[in-house]
Design goal:
heterodimer; A: alpha+beta; 4-stranded antiparallel sheet; B: 475 residues; alpha+beta; 8-stranded antiparallel sheet; 22 strands
Chain lengths: 787, 475
């Protein structure tokens, strides 16, 4: 038996106890360190040796290691959950911001929209009031401002994504560098076989923090270092760390790139992923819907406003707000096709009706322009408008269309009814007229060209006979000769004797002389039959001393554009002849109604035609034999081509998106220009009614919603998303709490436990020390034996 | 759950509890302080979706409420103006009764005429009443005065420049009312019945009859029938004479060769030749003819043309066909027409025309004034008769004005009902809105107190738990 055996055992015991104390002390010290895993001293009995006869005697305690109490699986789950929480936090923050930008239910767009319609409703009580008109313009301005503010703040938010991601990536790079450094140190330490507990803890904490920012995949190496992969790319490989950078992809959106080669890394979880997703998902989506709303509002509102009438009645001059762009780069604007002129709203194939009014008499003439954006240029439009009597149109150097009326005349695009539709006097007018009994086209295929017939006019003395010749080349298709073609051909020959007209598709010839003694007779030449083919009577038509006045009242309430043709059903005197009727045909040639104008009808009294139109006939005579007729446009939409909206002619709103919507400054400067009316009366509120109706109209551009409903949907969606984001965050936080509690339970330090351990090791130390002193005494006794 | 508890877990738990307590506390505080449950859409997304339309409804109702008040005021202003007009018409009637009194002197009549002239201008101003800057009785033409008094060769008349469009304003959900009334409907009423002719006093009927339809003139008028010469069917030897002729129409003639005589219309024969001879017919009518001899055809019918005029002779319509049931005569000054049945037209003269059911207050006053001034040179009796005949016109015109007063008054009183309806809707919407978006203060305060209690309890418990540790018990 060796003397020292006890000492070494005692020494070992002391070391063990001291190590235990130290570990306990380390645990206590690190009780609040984030990511710290409590350490335990692993003790085992040291190898015994034999003392003969099969007896083994122990040699004390061996310190086999200091272990970390950590559950790696739990750590990984925790890291993942941190990523989810990070993402949920960002989402909640973003949605909160979006909700803040929209600022509902107080002070947001819903209030501005209601304010705009409200101001229109108020103006309806006194349409000529200047202050109330100003109110509508101001309300439009407030709405525009609201849109622009929201658009700019959304843009800011989207733009801030890049900077935020860059900031977060800086943090990522710092941690990656730290992890790489720790890798190096851990490898160095553990190559000796020991475990670098604290360093591993620190490294684990870095990895967890990284997990908040983006999703990483950890691969543990034999050497003790870990590799981190982000989206398949190596971020940390051993003791080397790459760096991540923020860049912009082709669409201008933020992307994360790895290393010097700048290859794109796909980030799926964590704060950074949430930011990137918001940038391409929720933010553009909301901003897009607000844009959609703004654009639709501009389009629909302008459609109404551009075809309305300002307080002062028809315009003397108007210039469009937008100019055609010089698409072909030849320095001239307006020579590009309408579909390629860079207009923000599309010009459709359709019609534009332009009315010219003589201010002194109130007489109105309306011209229909057919527009096809694929074949016409803005210059063509200007030329067509100039061809209208008393109007001139031109394109200025900036590509804007300018229309002017001659002095004493005004123009407008309003769908109002012509109060005196019989301008040509072909319905009981002063001059004698003979018109075809039915509408064209006429079948002249049975005629041998050239065809001649005579037109005889005169007021009683020697009559004038004018021969009229029709050639086959006058018609595109002689079997379908239109009244327009016939009129052009006949006017070429008639000269001063009279005029040929196309009225509602019927051909009418009118003598140039009026009065009771004026006569008009048509006669075939020889055995000709052309008059029968054209439905023209050969009976003599006689003029009158006074014209029969036809007056139209009311506002057309139909939904499609129509043309009504009025033809007497018999001959007689208004208000006198029993059972005298006037037939009314629509554009398709169908008989709509027949109005009773004979005995029992008081001349001048309005008769209801339906759809809001009232017609009255003054005293006079009508004749079906003479083929009398007049036609009248009933317009629901006087600009089906949307040309006025596209070029910003008489526009209320300018711009085409939420970022650039504004009220036409001409209206801001002069509220009298607000087109509140449809008719010419200063107090006419026809357009205000249409604008109010817009409020309850389901718009195709807004997915069949009304303007306010569409916006309410957006607000509602944001509300739901925000509430959902809030709920998700709290749910994720709860999960995180749970996991963190689990980790605490496994790896956390319980002070009381460490206290007990410390007491235990202290007593053990005391006991070991006691043992050593006893062993020493025993050794002393042994040594002192030989004295 | 875990088997091992650490201080860390206790601290974390304590913190979490305190945090959540504070969060609930602060939310309740916001709800009570702002009075609203829903301060942002995310507070209650489903509720927020109901709030927006309710608010819009309320704003709408506010607008409607102010519209109703405006409507009432405008209608009342209009009714008040018409009441002034009614008082004016009463005064006119008084004057008319006075003037038709036999004992009135011509000087008095002139002063009454002056007053009527003044009343006429007043009536025109009433027709041009305004509210603020807008004319009330011009339809939607609010900038130009609806009525203008025109004096020219055709006499005096009042022309209407307004239109018939109504200014419709929404006064309750889905209910609109017209704030205006076109002036011509009130002062130039055209609820037409049948036209009638009354022979002017002191004269014999001409035989002309109203056709019965197609007339457009208003109120009353005069039809003048005058001799227009001989038609082309007159015998070649006969021409119109310079003497008085009051026979018109188809007249039979009979010549005898020897002696040369002519008898017209079955009357006594006259010897020929004769210049400006007065031929009487069996009916007692006279025609002045110059006959040079006996023509080839000795018997037959010739036509004495008549000229019809309703604008005092300014324009005439010649009648050559006395079988027509409808000859249209036009007034060149205002374009109105009268249709005359000439079948029985036999003599010249004057017929007083009444366009039944129609009244023109202005024309009535103008005619009154002119009769009083007696510019037409009528006898005192004739003038007085005509003046008393005007009473019916004045009453008619007055009734038309009263109709206007009634109509506007009726609309105005409907406003009261509608105003109540709108107010009721406002209350109900406000209630609904409040239910959704407002905090129930009582409930919230109770909840606040409860939260405060649980928050305090959590704090106390946490402090106890945190503080207790083994260290406190060692040694």
């Amino acid at each position: 038996m060796s003397i020292g055996f006890g000492m070494s055992a005692g020494l070992r015991a002391l070391s063990a106890a001291r190590l235990g104390m130290q570990t306990a002390g380390n645990n206590v010290a690190n009780a609040n360190t984030a990511g710290y895993s409590r350490q335990r001293v692993e003790l085992s009995a040291s190898l015994p040796y034999g003392i003969g006869r099969g007896m083994q005697i122990g040699t004390g305690v061996d310190i086999t290691g200091i272990s970390r109490m950590v559950d790696d699986g739990l750590e990984r789950r925790l890291q993942f959950q941190l990523g989810l929480v990070g993402a949920a936090e960002i989402d909640k923050l973003r949605y909160d911001e979006i909700e803040g930008i929209l600022s509902e239910p107080d002070g947001g767009l819903s209030e501005s929209l209601a304010g705009l319609f409200g101001s229109v409703g108020q103006l309806m009580t006194d349409p000529a009031d200047r202050a109330l008109r100003g109110g509508v313009v101001q309300a439009g301005s407030a709405l525009s401002q609201g849109f622009r503010l929201i658009a700019s703040r959304f843009e800011d938010l989207e733009g801030s994504t890049f900077d935020e991601v860059r900031g977060l990536l800086r943090q990522v790079n710092e941690r990656a560098a730290a992890i790489a450094e720790l890798n190096r140190e851990i490898v160095a330490i553990e190559s000796n076989g020991s475990t670098a507990n604290d360093l591993r803890d620190t490294r684990g904490q870095h990895v967890k923090e990284l997990g908040k920012l983006l999703d990483t995949r950890t691969i543990e190496r034999e050497s003790g270092s870990i590799d981190l992969l982000v989206g398949g790319h190596l971020l940390v490989a051993g003791s080397r760390a790459s760096s991540l950078a923020a860049g912009k992809d082709a669409a201008g959106k933020t992307e994360v790139t790895v290393g010097t080669g700048r290859s794109k890394a796909l980030v799926r979880e964590g704060r950074i992923a949430a930011l990137l997703q918001q940038e391409t998902g929720a933010l553009p989506d909301i901003a897009g819907r607000i844009d959609q709303l703004a654009r639709s509002t501009i389009l629909e509102w302008n459609r109404m406003h551009s075809t309305g009438m300002p307080r002062s009645g028809p315009f003397s001059t108007l210039t469009s707000a937008y100019g055609a762009e010089d698409g072909d780069g030849d320095g001239t604007r307006g020579d590009e096709l309408l579909s390629q002129s860079g207009f923000r709203f599309e010009v459709q194939q359709g019609e534009l009706y332009v009315s010219v009014t003589q201010r002194s008499t109130g007489e109105m003439e309306r011209t229909r322009l057919e527009l096809d954006p694929r074949t016409m240029t803005l210059q063509d439009v200007a030329t067509a408008i100039t061809a209208i009597d008393h109007l001139t149109a031109s394109i200025d150097p900036t590509g804007k269309l300018r229309i002017s009326a001659d002095d004493g005349y005004g123009f407008d695009f309003s769908p109002r009814l012509d109060p005196n539709p019989d301008d040509a006097g072909t319905f009981g007018g002063i001059n004698p007229t003979i018109g075809s009994q039915a509408a064209g086209p006429f079948d002249l295929s049975g005629q041998t060209f050239p065809v001649v017939f005579n037109v005889t006019t005169g007021t009683g003395g020697v009559p004038t006979v004018t021969p009229v010749t029709l050639l086959a080349t006058d018609f595109a298709d002689p079997s379908r000769a239109t009244a327009e073609e016939l009129a052009t051909a006949i006017n070429g020959d008639l000269g001063g004797a009279g005029t040929a007209l196309d009225v509602g598709g019927r051909l009418v010839l009118r003598s140039a002389q009026g009065g009771r003694s004026s006569q008009l007779t048509l006669a075939n030449v020889g055995a000709g039959t052309v008059l029968a083919d054209l439905g023209l009577s050969t009976a003599t038509g006689v003029g009158r001393d006074r014209a029969l006045t036809v007056a139209i009242e009311g506002t057309y309430g139909g939904t499609t554009n129509e043309q009504f043709t009025f033809v007497p059903a018999g001959n007689g005197q208004i208000g006198q002849t029993p059972d005298l009727l006037v037939n009314v045909y629509n554009q398709a040639g169908e008989l709509v109604t027949a109005v009773s104008v004979g005995a029992g009808y008081e001349p001048g009294k309005p008769l209801d035609l339906g759809n809001g139109i009232k017609v009255s006939f003054g005293p006079g005579n009508i004749s079906a034999t003479d083929g009398q007729v007049f036609a009248m446009d009933a317009l629901a939409d006087s600009d089906t081509s949307d040309l006025l909206v596209a070029i910003g002619m008489n526009a209320f709103f300018l711009g085409s998106s939420a970022a650039d919507i504004e009220v036409n400054e001409e209206l801001l400067a002069n509220p009298d220009r607000l087109s509140a009316g449809i008719g010419v009366a200063t107090g006419d509120s026809g357009n205000l009614t249409r604008l109010m109706d817009l409020r309850s109209l389901d718009l195709d551009d807004l997915d069949a919603n009304t303007i306010e409903d569409f916006y309410a949907d957006v607000v509602g969606d944001i509300g739901f998303e925000t509430a959902a984001a809030n709920n998700l965050l709290s749910a994720q936080n709860q999960l995180l709490d749970h996991l963190q509690t689990e980790r605490e339970s496994v790896s956390g330090v319980n002070i009381d436990e460490e206290m007990v351990d410390m007491l235990q090791f202290q007593q053990s130390y005391e006991a070991a020390a006691r043992f050593i002193s006893v062993a020493q005494e025993m050794t002393d006794t042994l040594i002192n034996l030989g004295r | 759950m875990s088997l091992r508890i650490t201080q860390g877990m206790l601290y974390a738990r304590a913190l979490a509890d305190v945090q959540s307590g504070l969060y609930r506390y602060s939310r309740l505080q916001q709800e009570v302080a702002s009075g609203r449950r829903i301060n942002r859409p995310s507070d209650d997304p489903a509720g927020a979706l109901r709030v927006l339309p309710l608010r819009n409804d309320l704003r709408n109702l506010e607008q409607l409420s102010s519209n109703v008040a405006l409507a009432k005021e405008t209608l009342n202003t209009g009714a008040a103006s018409l009441e002034d007009a009614s008082a004016l018409m009463t005064r006119v009637r008084e004057l008319t009764t006075q003037a038709s009194n036999g004992t009135i002197s011509s000087g008095d009549r002139q002063s009454i005429a002056a007053e009527v002239d003044q009343l006429l201008s007043q009536l025109v101003s009433i027709g041009n009443s305004r509210r603020g800057e807008r004319f009330l009785f011009g339809g939607t033409e609010n900038d130009t005065a609806p009525f203008t008094l025109v004096s020219d060769a055709g006499g005096t008349r009042v022309v209407y420049h307004g239109n018939h469009d109504s200014l419709e304003v929404e006064v309750a959900p889905g209910v609109t009312t017209a704030l205006n009334m076109p002036g011509d409907v009130i002062f130039q009423q055209r609820d037409r019945g049948s036209t009638t002719f009354t022979t002017a006093s002191g004269l014999i009927a001409t035989g002309a009859q109203p056709t019965g339809s197609g007339d457009t003139a208003l109120g009353f008028g005069e039809l003048l029938v005058t001799f227009a010469g001989l038609h082309t069917d007159a015998p070649s030897t006969v021409t119109a004479g310079a003497g008085t002729t009051n026979a018109v129409g188809e007249l039979a003639f009979t010549f005898t060769a020897a002696p040369a005589t002519l008898s017209v219309g079955g009357g006594p024969a006259q010897n020929l030749p004769i210049t400006d001879g007065a031929f009487t017919t069996a009916n007692g009518l006279t025609i002045s003819l110059t006959v040079t001899g006996v023509p080839a055809t000795t018997t037959g019918v010739f036509t004495a043309k008549a000229n019809l005029s309703i604008d005092g002779g300014a324009t005439v319509t010649e009648v050559t066909d006395f079988d027509s049931t409808s000859v249209q005569v036009a007034n060149s000054y205002d374009g109105t027409v009268l249709n005359v049945d000439t079948e029985n037209l036999a003599r010249t003269g004057e017929e007083v025309i009444k366009y039944a059911g129609t009244f023109d207050a202005f024309t009535t006053l103008i005619t009154m004034r002119d009769l009083l001034r007696n510019a037409g040179g009528l006898t005192t009796d004739d003038a007085r008769n005509r003046i008393s005949q005007m009473l019916a016109e004045i009453d008619g015109a007055h009734d038309a004005v009263l109709d206007g007063v009634r109509e506007l008054g009726f609309r105005s009183s409907s406003m009261d009902v509608l105003s109540n309806r709108v107010a009721g809707l406002q209350v109900s919407r406000t209630e609904s809105l409040s239910l959704v978006q407002d905090t129930d203060i009582a409930e919230a305060i109770l909840e606040l107190q409860r939260q405060e209690l649980s928050y305090t309890a959590a704090l106390q418990v946490s402090s106890r738990v945190i503080q207790t540790s083994l260290q406190g018990f060692l040694r």
